[in-house]
């Protein structure tokens, strides 16, 4: 009798495992099992010393990417201009960043500007809410703001967008330009 009970119990346990566990070959790889997406960054001119710091900031906040600095080329290329505004193409780990020395010399934190523009190349758009805790608020937070770190929500958004590892959501090419204004443009008054 005991043998029948044990045999029946073992059969039920086996059936539960067999019907509840997904087949190994049928399940897609989980995001955590994929390698982080490798992104290289080059350039920066007189602001090049801020590039490794900004890379470290993004690497420490977003586990699904691994950015590194290279001497030329790279997925993200940074140039310095005089005028025209700091701006970056919206990409999925690729694109071009222009740092406007005239704007930065108005007193904005170079590290914050570099990290902010990298945020665009990682897919984030501007959020001119004036909050220093939001990296993508850009210049609307004022020259006193020195925070170069993305908020938890910004980091989470980038992390989720790179959850597929090397399988980018798009071709990796920039999809649009985000023209920053440091400070942010004044709100257009609503006609009454």
Oligomerization category of the chains in this entry: single chain
**Biggest sheet, open or closed, and with what strands and sense?**
6 strands, mixed
The CATH architecture designation is 3-Layer(aba) Sandwich
Q: What is the CATH topology assignment?
A: Collagenase (Catalytic Domain)
Rg over C-alpha atoms, rounded to the nearest angstrom: 23 Å
Strands in their spatial order, largest beta sheet: 2-1-3-5-4-6
Query: How many helix segments?
Result: 5
Q: CATH homologous superfamily - what is it?
A: Collagenase (Catalytic Domain)
Provide the CATH top-level class: Alpha Beta
What proportion of the residues form beta strands (DSSP E)?
A: 15-25%
Name the helicity range. 25-40%
Order of helices and strands: HEHEEEEHHHE
Q: Give the overall silhouette.
A: globular
Taking pLDDT < 50 over at least 5 consecutive residues as the criterion, the unreliable ranges are 5-32, 166-177, 185-192
Rounded mean pLDDT is 79
N- and C-termini, Cα separation: 88 Å
As for the number of domains, it is 1
Derived structural class: alpha/beta
Number of strands: 6
What does this 3D model show about the protein?
It is a single chain. With 192 residues, the protein is α/β, with parallel strands linked by helices. It has one domain: Collagenase (Catalytic Domain). Strands 2-1-3-5-4-6 form a six-stranded mixed sheet. Helix 2 packs across helix 4. The longest helix is centred in the first third of the chain and has 19 residues.
């Amino acid at each position: 009798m005991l043998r029948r009970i044990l045999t029946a119990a073992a059969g039920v346990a086996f059936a539960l495992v067999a019907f509840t566990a997904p087949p190994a070959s049928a399940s897609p790889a989980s995001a955590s099992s994929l390698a982080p997406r490798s992104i290289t960054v080059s350039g920066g001119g007189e602001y090049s010393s801020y590039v490794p710091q900004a890379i470290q900031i993004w690497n420490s906040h977003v586990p699904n990417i691994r950015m590194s600095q290279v001497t030329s080329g790279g997925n993200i290329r940074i140039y310095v201009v005089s005028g025209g505004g700091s701006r970056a193409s919206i990409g999925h780990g690729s694109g071009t960043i222009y740092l406007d020395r005239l704007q930065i010399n108005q007193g904005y934190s170079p590290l914050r500007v570099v990290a902010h523009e990298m945020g665009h190349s990682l897919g984030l758009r501007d959020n001119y809410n004036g909050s220093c805790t939001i990296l993508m608020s850009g210049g609307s937070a004022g020259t006193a703001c020195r925070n170069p770190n993305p908020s938890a929500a910004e980091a989470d958004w980038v992390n989720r967008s790179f959850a597929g590892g090397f399988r980018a959501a798009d071709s990796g090419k920039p999809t649009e330009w985000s023209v920053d204004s440091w400070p942010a443009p004044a709100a257009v008054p609503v006609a009454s």
